[in-house]
Structure formats: structure tokens, C-alpha cells
Amino acid sequence: MPADRVRGAAYDVLTAVREQDAYTNLVLPPLLRARQITGRDAAFATELVSGTIRRQGLYDAVLAANVDRPLAKVDPGVLDALRLGTHQLLAMRVPTHAAVGTTVDLVRRKVGHRPSGFANAVLRKVARHDLDGWVRRVAPDPGSDPLGYAEVAHAHPRWVVEALAESLGDRRDELDALLAADNDAPRVTLVARPGLATVDELVAAGGTASRQSRYAVTLPGGDPAAVPAVAEGRAGVQDEGSQLVATALADAALDGTDARWLDTCAGPGGKAALLAALATERGGLLLAAELQHHRAVLVRSAVPRVVTVDGTRPAWRSGTFDRVMVDAPCSGLGALRRRPEARWRKQAADVDGLVPLQETLLDRALDAARPGGVVAYVTCSPVLAETRGVVAAVLARRDDVRLDDAAPLLPGVTDAAGPLPGTVQLWPHRHGTDAMFLALLRRH
Question: Domain SAM-dependent MTase RsmB/NOP-type, which positions (predicted)?
Fold first, then answer.
């Protein structure tokens, strides 16, 4: 049988993610280009890798029910191949004989001949039931343990399920829909950077204009770099939620000057690029600040004024800026569909360590704003400790800040009330965006 280079590429990405803590979105695209895998083959490889990693918890439960030893005793390379095969059997339109045969061949080529028979036997057992059938067999009873059922059925760690359920508040009945949305591949969304590209231009290239962000266009598929405006840096790939929080900051009412804008945590540069374009249209300038130099270099490709500096120890005078963005480092639980490996790497303790940093960054951002200036506090996480908790704590200790109502600044968005009055919480299952949180605070 000839070597299957598409599945081989997917296997190599899984190996890099497991052995090197690599990120799928950073490893896969250059690997596909290097091996000249394009079109439908590239789409197949992308779904195979991302889908396998997203549902790894469920697939491991299925595999554990079909092997005669703990999964920890299975060769890691064989286990990677079995996960790829299981995803093809249970979640992709791949015939059983093709999914089993190509996976066995993959094991033979990548690991060795001896374990190929084991892989064949395991996958033939997996093929006896469909995805729903296996969920009924390996997940806890939803009636007696609904969170345990969600943990297995939707392949999210238990602590993540609990945190997201809490974030939904009195809408906890939407938990299954939210977790299911995390397992769907996100749409490819472009941003037409004002003054550089137009929505009409991107629509003419095959996209569809959005009703939520006035700069967003979604693509049906393909390589975004093939769009001329993207290749030339006049447009970019950016989640619509990121566009919405940036435009909300830009649209907030302001008395007095409107020339000096700041992004205190600018890397990798998507929001900064949009804000810089909006500021330029008004005759203003954006200063982009980023702690990590390699990320600052990424920002510099789209924003002319970039400094490498720690946002908790500012290099600028207080009261300097008219508009300030603080897109704080967070747990990233609102972007799990985009970062498939993140759910398996994060721990609940990570949130506890991030909250003091988030509070400090917001405090320093407020210091940077002039009286009357506005600050957008943004996270790609809906976790209450990182959203409501941070904003409430900062407001409680400052008498020079008030919370503005951000909802009117997003007229195309509905059903997005945040956990504090006036804040905004976007959701994958409601809005088709990452779960971005936005609070607008004004210095007075």
C-alpha cells in the first residue's frame, strides 16, 4: 500500500503536540506547505488533527473500553494512531475499511510491524458502534451525574465543565450547546482593516459579510492567504469577537482629545492592527506594547509603533492616553474550538495565578488613561474569576473609575449580557465567536 502522506502529516503533528508541547495552529500550516498538501487534502488533515485532539478525552474512554491494558501501557505512538483512527470511524465520513486499513498501515510505518495487529483488532472493536452508541456506553448517566456525562460526551476536563457551567449562570441549560460548539471547527473570518481594505473587496473574493462586525467577512473554506488583501497585509484573519471588542473601544463616546491610543498586551497583534487602522482614520496614533519580544515582532508586521515593555510596569506617564485596550493574559477557555490542545494543558490552578496579574494590568491601564479616557478590559475567557471578579475588585478599590454600558456599542449583537451590568459576554453557541468578555471603564 502506498504511503498515505495526508494521514502521515496528521500523525506527525500529533507527535509534536505530545512530545514538544507544540501548538496545532503553529505546526500544521507550515508542515502542510512543506509537504505540498493543499485543497481537500489539507482540509482533511486539518479536521483529522484538530478533531482528534479536541475529542481526545472521549476517544481515550472509548479506546480504554477496547484494550486489555491501561492506556498508559500502550505505546504513545500507537495511541496517537488509534486516536486518529477512532476520529475517522466515529466523527468523519471515512468508510470503516479505509479508516482501519490506513491506520494499521500508519502504525506499521511509524512504529513497527509488531503492534499493527493490535491496532487492527482495537479499531475493529471501535467500529462496532457509532459515536452516540459509545457515549451511552462510556459516559456516566446524565440523570445522576450531568457534569460527568458532559465531561466525557463533550470531551472537556471536569474542571472546565464546572467553570463554564458557572459562567452561564441562570442559562446552564445551554451547557451542552456550548460544549458542543467548542468541538466544532471555527469559521475562517477575515477583518477588512479600515482605510486599507473594504468588506466589498473581501466579499468579491468569495466571502460573506457579517451582520455583527462591520469589518468581518467569513470564507467558505480554502487558504485565507490566497485572498490578495490578506496576502498584502491589508486584511487579516481575526475572530469576529476580537473585532467586536476592538470596535466597541473605538466607538465609545469621548470628550476632548482622541489622538493617543494604547494597547497594553498587544501580541500577537490582531486587535492592535484593527485599532491602529481605526486610530489612523481619525488622525490618531496607536502605541502597541507587548511584554514578550518575539510577540512584539509579530505585532510590528502590522503596527508601526511597538514597544517591548511590561504592562504592569509602564514606560509611559500616567494620564497620557485617550483610549486603552488591555487584552489580558487569561485561561483561554473561550477559545477552545480554536486551540484544540488547550483544554488538556490548562489546570484550574492556572486561573488562580492569572487573576492577580489581570487585576494589576487593568489597574495600570486605568492609570494610563487621562481623565475622561476609556479603557476596554477584555479576556477570551468567560470564567467569572477572570471577568466579573477582576472588574469588581478593581472598581471596589478605585474611586476614580466607573463602569460604562458597552452593550449599545454592539448594535448587531443580541443576547450578550455579561455577568456585571453593562458588560458584554459573547458565546460560541450564541454568536459564533470566541467567548470574549468586554468591560468598558472610564476614568473620571
Answer: 161-444
DSSP label at residue 422: T
**Distance between CA atoms of residues 320 and 293, nearest Å:** 24
CATH class of 240-443: alpha beta
Q: How confident is the model at residue 3 (pLDDT cuts 50, 70, 90)?
A: low
Residue 116 CA to residue 318 CA, distance in Å, equals: 65
C-beta separation of 37 from 73 below 8 A:
no
Instruction: Establish whether 290 is an annotated binding residue.
Output: yes
**91, 380, 424, 438: which one is catalytic?**
380
Rounded CA separation 285/249 (Å): 14
CATH number (1.10.940.10, 2.60.120.200, 3.30.420.40, 3.30.1330.130) of 5-132 reads 1.10.940.10
Question: What are the grid coordinates assigned to 443, written together?
Answer: 476614568
The pLDDT value recorded for residue 1 is 38
Q: Which residues pair with 402 in a beta bridge?
A: 442
Q: Is 265 annotated as a binding residue?
A: yes
Q: For the stretch 384-401, what's the b/e string if a residue is b when 16 or more beta carbons lie within 10 angstroms of its beta carbon?
A: bbbbbbbbebbbeeeeeb
The reply to whether 380 belongs to the active site is: yes
Q: What is the pLDDT of residues 284-322, one digit of tens each?
A: 999 999 999 989 898 998 899 999 999 999 989 999 999
Q: How many residues does the chain have?
A: 444
Burial class (CB in 10 A: 0-12, 13-18, 19+), 417: middle
Q: Where are the domains of the chain?
A: 5-132, 139-182, 188-237, 240-443
Helix, strand, coil % in the chain, rounded to nearest 5: 50, 15, 35
Q: Which residues pair with 217 in a beta bridge?
A: 190, 209
Show the cell assigned to 338: 480554536
Say whether 240 counts as a known binding-site residue: no
Please, which residues have CB within 8 angstroms of residue 355's CB and are 6 or more apart in sequence?
385, 386, 389, 390
How far apart (Å, rounded) are the C-alpha atoms in residues 164 and 145?
16
Of 357, 134, 374, 145, residue with least CA distance to 253: 374
Q: 267 among the known binding-site residues?
A: yes
pLDDT, tens digit, for every residue of 383-437? 999 999 999 999 999 999 999 999 999 999 999 999 999 999 999 999 999 999 9
pLDDT digits (tens, 9 = 90+) for 20-67: 999 998 999 999 999 999 989 999 999 999 999 999 999 999 999 999
Q: Is 372 annotated as a binding residue?
A: no
Tell me if 84 sits within 8 A of 116, measured CB to CB: no
268 is in an annotated binding site: yes
Predicted TM-score (pTM) of the model is 0.94
Return d(Cα 184, Cα 5) in angstroms, integer. Answer: 25
